Amino acid sequence: MYDSELSVWRNLMEDGTKCLGEEDYLEAENCYSQGLQLAHQLTVPVIIAFTLRLLATVRVRLEKLDLAEEGFNEALRICIDLKNRKGMAEAWAGLASVSVKKGMLKEAIREYEHAISVYPSASPPLRLGMLYADLGQVYASMEEGDKAQKAFTQARNICRLNRFPKGEGELDVLLGELAFRQGEKEEAVRSLKHACQLFAYIADMIALSNTLQYLALVYFDQNKMHLAFECQQRAVALCLDFDDQYAISESCFFLSKIDQLLENYQEAKHYLELSIECYPEQDVNLALRYQSLAGLLLISMDLVEAELYYLKALSLFEAIDDELRIGEVFESLSVIKEIKERKEGSLQSSDQSFSNMKPEKEPGLDALIRLAEVFEKRQNFRDALECYWKALAMGRKAEITTDWIEKRVQRVSKRLRRKNKKIKYFEI
After folding, report:
1. pTM of the complete model beyond 0.85
2. Which of 284, 233, 285, 226 is nearest to 256 (CA)?
């Protein structure tokens, strides 16, 4: 054995692994390639196989899939000759990762199952748990829910038996996500709640915040808005301490949507403004936030600010040529223009009226009704209902007939309830 060459090889492996962890894949490939040359000089088969697997692993990251597959196959042949079952399992798992990248999911399943079948009982059990988890992910991608659940449960049990709460929590999240996709909402809630308990126990605040948001989404889907609000509010409180502006923005944006459905409009506006403040890009997601804030301002009849944010959204939608969104913004801007014109007209007519006459309609009532009609036409029933409620209060104050407004309130309320029952997914 060449001690100096072996020392150099070890250093190259350590450097390559460090680069791999830092996602500097080109430098990792360089270290492992040099290490493979030394491994061949050392003529120790187990070292050659080990180096081949590491080099192939980084080549998967670099999308050099044919080279990676060649390396894993060579490592597998060496390990079979050596009857090294751990090395065989790792080579099969590497081949499975290549198949996943190539979209050959059935082949990936076969390879993961080979890896699991040859994995030695004396080797670290948590690595076996990872193999089951990877197998479950492939089954989930193929929409084979029962098989995915079985693999994830096996992985979770291994983590639980070996007192690895972080892994157990992550598997609970995967099981919760799977249950949610299969329509098993209560099972999803149970799994996600248990994951939250585990992440809180180990003080993993990032994982806890992410899982709380997922739980909020499940409650949102079930139209359990108060529970969704509680979870999302806790998630936002946690993520405000993270150095991740995008995550903060996304969390606040979702909380704003929940607040709007609960009619907490001032709080919704606050979190929406915070979401905009934290969002780091100038793209369609920022435009959607501007559009949403403008809609809140329009409901509160803050026309100047609403127009300002609609114009900000418009400039970003025009940059990506989103014709649908551009049309929505122009429609909203036309509503603002019409409201302003009607307000001006109402003020002028009131100057010419006799002081002892009650106006048929209070200034701004027509504009509110028109705005409600626009929201209703766009199936934005929550905003439509808010406008009709304001119009109803205005009409009663002016002591005019409001039966027709009450009928609209009832109609839109019914449509909103039907829409909430049909909600299947919400994009943040």
Report:
1. no
2. 233
